[in-house]
Amino acid sequence: MSEEESIYNLIPKDAPEKEKTKRHKSKFHRTAIDDYRANRSLNKTLGPAKVETRPPELFLRKHEKEPKLPPVEKFKYEDDGSRKPHVPARDERPLMGLRTNKNYITENALHNIMSAPRNPAHCHVDTRRGDKFVLEPSGLQPQHIHKKDYGVTPAYVAMRKEEMKRNQEEYDAYVAEHFRRGTMKQLSADERNRILSGLKENWEELHRDYLQLSVMIDTVPKINYKEKLEMELKQLEKDIEMMEVHDVIYVAN
Predict the structure, then answer these.
(1) Where are the alpha helices (H) located in 182-219, listed in sequence order?
(2) 38-63 per-position pLDDT tens digit
(3) Cross-strand pairs, 185
(4) What is the rounded CA–CA span in Å between residue 211 and residue 209?
(5) What's the pTM value of the predicted model, to 2 decimals?
(6) Spatial CA neighbour of 176 closest among 186, 166, 163
(7) What residues does each domain of the chain span?
(8) What percent of the chain lies above the pLDDT cut of 90?
């Protein structure tokens, strides 16, 4: 009987333990541990490491941490100083027996004698009942014509006229210089009217093309064509306005 056919081979055997390989250990192992502990020890608590504690006799009392309101003051109105005195009470008695040596009749007479007479206001009556209306604020009595500077040309108007005159002289000198050099010429009335009529005909033709556009403009070529027509119409309108406003037009050669 061979060894392979032995009955003892039927007994299950424990698997042999595998030998574990040696775990890798970094050469910076100790340095990493020191850094971790050094940084961790600073953040162990949410507050400072040392906190001053209260003595036992100063224990926390009720409503101690609630906000304290300012002391209640008596309400006063802003116009307390300018108010009239209160009405006297029923049991208050006025001072009796006070007399003065002032002669009111003589005082009033002297006041009327020494005072200057008051000028009566200019009024007008426009009803049969005698209703009066003051003339000065009504606008019926002229007031501005009595001013010293009435009818005098203001200084800023004269300065403006001088400035416009100086600008016109500079422009005339500029045009005369260009005429002398031969770099500019003035359009005659016939040429101006002919150019103006041509611009209006071009505007009518473009406006006719613009009105003939389709109702639905949903493609890129249609949109571009519409924008082109609008731009040309605006430019023609500016040119026509310029030609109509200015009677004298100079053209540079």
Answers:
(1) 189-211
(2) 766 555 656 556 677 888 998 989 98
(3) 251
(4) 5
(5) 0.35
(6) 186
(7) 187-253
(8) 28
